[in-house]
Amino acid sequence: MKNSPFICQWYVASLLSLVHITAEKAIIHHYMDDVLVCAPTDDVLAHALDLTINALVVAGFELQEDKVQRMPPWRNLGLEIGKRTIVPQKLEIKAKIKTLADVHQLCGALNWVRPWLGLTTKDLAPLFNLLKGGQELSSPRALTPETKNALEKVQHLMSTWQAHRCYPNLPFKFMVMGKLPHLHGVIFQWRNNIKMDQGREDPLLIIEWVFLSHQRSKRMTHPQELGAELIRKAGVQIRELAGCDFECIHIPIGLRSGQITKAMLEHLLQENEALQFALDSFTGQF
């Protein structure tokens, strides 16, 4: 199986599927030699973890006890998972940029942490612009004052921002944010039983950020189409993450005067095909 990662993945999945039949309340994620076991209670978790370890040992796998993480923070696939928050493990930002290959490596690493840190396309635009020009990986590149400022902001966000673990009893919501042309969105939950003035706890739980591609379409794009694309991407993501849809979707609408009405929303949907497709089968509030 050392020569075939696919066979290894398939074989471990077949073992863990039997465990899940017995511990049906548990969630078991695995990728290659990393296995993450989650459960609603400590008792169910302990039982599922014991079953998982036994199944792997009986199949001939060798487990290192010091690698079994039983207490937080848990480290899995580059993430550090605490009791309430999720942050990327320490990411080394290589500020020495000499070639296009260095820029590709840096932008790839930053794209990976964006959903948890809220690094907007506008924040990273100076770095993405370094990808333009000669396409040879050895093409020379150098940091500009703008890219240095962008990297400083990245370092600050990596040390201060975080995402949250979701609450299973709370619905998910989505909000389109930002200013044109750099719209972005956030998947979140809201704890109604917590007020801002009650200590340090925030009722807002940021689950994940959603961004549009830095490569903008060459055709004319309406703001509603950008919002629709964010809604579509967020819908796919929440179904993969939680197997459900949003309870409510918030979009920004500029008003010259007065208040938004139901008729205005209906007109917006009727006039925009992209929004119609993005909200197809959506039964929540909009």
UniProtKB/TrEMBL annotation:
SUPFAM superfamilies: DNA/RNA polymerases. Residues 1-81 form the Reverse transcriptase domain. This is ribonuclease H. Belongs to the beta type-B retroviral polymerase family. HERV class-II K(HML-2) pol subfamily. Its EC number is 3.1.26.4. It comes from Hirundo rustica rustica. Pfam families: RVT_1, RVT_thumb. It comes from the Eukaryota. Residues 1-23 form the signal peptide. InterPro entries: DNA/RNA_pol_sf, Rev_trsase/Diguanyl_cyclase, RT_dom, RVT_thumb. Keywords: Endonuclease, Hydrolase, Nuclease, Nucleotidyltransferase, RNA-directed DNA polymerase, Signal, Transferase. GO terms for molecular function: RNA stem-loop binding; RNA-directed DNA polymerase activity; RNA-DNA hybrid ribonuclease activity. The keyword Hydrolase applies.
